[in-house]
């Protein structure tokens, strides 16, 4: 069990930051004042109740530089105002404590069982929203950081909307606490302020970044909100929540826009994601899926789609937008990838007109080359020796395939001439033998 700081240590602490102001319920405020400071647009309220020490609830301002939120409603398991404040800077005590000697809360006991809670502070009211969701922003901080991370001294708080705690983080909806948000777990949500560095102007030894509580509700119907915080296991080392002023409001979910783009095969295309929020809240883009036939590069909302090599057809991916409290339904980006440029000359199996021969080949001899039955030269008397025919070309004893390669027509003419010469020779030999 941690030892409480001495009263002397607390009373002799350096002066507090005068620019940071906290007024608790001992300073003239009422629980209605606290709720009135919370309420934003689209919400009405009634039936306000408060349970706890009046030093454990109040309004604060001037914390923008230290905590990222200027001010709002403060609820704590210890003192908020004056020299014993556990929130006003600078950090001068690693174990700031005020003991209220007050009971804990049954709902919170259920969250930390088998341990028990003490010094509970509770603010409750009924509300009606004109939208199907409410949201608000908050910060949790504690003197339990960092010495008691992972221990039984896990001071606890919850924001119950109709009995459901919306102060949760992560995919598994863990409650926000010293044990779930720290330097080793959900570290991106944690801000360290431990001595001796204590770079932030607040007494808190550690605190969360600005978080959002969001819950679904039925528009026009009455709902109940319970804001509660307490020590766990012992009454030492205070913890506090700051709920940003004016942020408890009806929230209309943002809208992500569908779109269609076109590109050519093997050609990247720029895509800018778009969306809007009916309440004018800033939006962020996320939950971008992978396209089936391409790749995305860049940072949302400015992306580049690159189709796979040679792919043509339709591809798509989805994304959502968030306003910090609600996430839109997914939108679809459809990408049409057209084929490449058409070739100027299409291939064909048919020869082009310029490739056709001007004269078709023929195996028929021309009319002027046709042979006749009569030899071209008649004999003139007795020969003095062996008569010889007089064809245009002298035949030889070489086979036909040794004829000069002068083309098909020329070959046919030579063959015909050789035949006629043979006929003439045979006639001469017959005439000679009969004379």
Automatic annotation (TrEMBL):
The chain crosses the membrane at residues 410-428. Keywords: Membrane, Repeat, Signal, Transmembrane, Transmembrane helix. It comes from the Bacteria. The keyword Transmembrane applies. Gene3D superfamilies: 2.60.40.3440. It comes from Jiangella asiatica. Residues 269-303, 336-409 are annotated as: Disordered. This is LPXTG cell wall anchor domain-containing protein. InterPro entries: Choice_anch_L, PT. The keyword Repeat applies. Residues 343-362, 370-380 have a biased composition (Acidic residues). Pfam families: Big_9, PT.
């Amino acid at each position: 069990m941690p030892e409480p700081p001495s009263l002397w240590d607390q009373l002799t602490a350096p002066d507090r930051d005068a620019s940071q102001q906290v007024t608790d319920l001992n300073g003239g405020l009422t629980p209605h004042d606290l709720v009135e400071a919370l309420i934003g647009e689209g919400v009405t309220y009634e039936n306000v109740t408060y349970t706890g020490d009046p030093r454990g609830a109040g309004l604060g301002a001037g914390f923008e530089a230290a905590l990222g939120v200027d001010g709002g409603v403060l609820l704590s398991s210890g003192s908020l105002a004056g020299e014993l404040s556990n929130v006003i800077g600078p950090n001068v005590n690693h174990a700031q404590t005020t003991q209220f000697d007050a009971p804990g809360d049954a709902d919170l006991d259920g969250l930390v069982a088998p341990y028990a809670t003490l010094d509970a502070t509770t603010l409750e009211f009924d509300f009606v929203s004109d939208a199907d969701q409410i949201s608000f922003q908050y910060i949790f901080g504690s003197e339990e950081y960092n010495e008691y991370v992972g221990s039984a001294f896990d001071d606890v708080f919850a924001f119950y909307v109709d009995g459901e705690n919306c102060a949760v983080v992560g995919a598994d909806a863990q409650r926000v606490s010293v044990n779930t948000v720290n330097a080793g777990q959900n570290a991106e949500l944690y801000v360290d302020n431990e001595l001796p560095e204590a770079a932030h102007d607040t007494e808190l030894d550690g605190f969360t970044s600005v978080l959002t509580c969001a819950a679904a509700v039925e528009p026009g119907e009455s709902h109940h909100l319970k804001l509660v915080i307490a020590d766990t296991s012992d009454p030492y080392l205070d913890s506090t929540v700051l709920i940003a002023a004016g942020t408890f409001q009806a929230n209309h979910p943002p809208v992500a826009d569908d779109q269609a783009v076109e590109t050519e095969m093997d050609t990247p295309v720029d895509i800018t994601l778009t969306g809007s929020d009916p309440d004018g809240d800033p939006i962020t883009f996320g939950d971008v899926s992978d396209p089936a036939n391409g790749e995305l590069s860049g940072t949302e909302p400015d992306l580049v789609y690159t189709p796979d090599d040679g792919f043509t057809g339709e591809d798509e991916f989805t994304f959502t937008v968030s306003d910090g409290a609600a996430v839109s339904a997914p939108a679809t980006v459809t990408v049409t990838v057209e084929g490449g440029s058409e070739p100027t000359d299409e291939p064909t199996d048919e020869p082009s007109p310029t490739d056709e021969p001007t004269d078709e080949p023929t195996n028929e001899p021309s009319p002027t080359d046709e042979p006749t039955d009569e030899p071209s030269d008649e004999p003139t008397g007795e020969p003095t020796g062996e008569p010889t025919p007089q064809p245009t070309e002298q035949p030889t004893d070489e086979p036909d395939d040794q004829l000069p390669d002068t083309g098909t027509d020329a070959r046919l003419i030579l063959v015909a001439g050789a035949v006629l010469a043979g006929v003439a020779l045979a006639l001469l030999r017959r005439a000679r033998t009969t004379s």
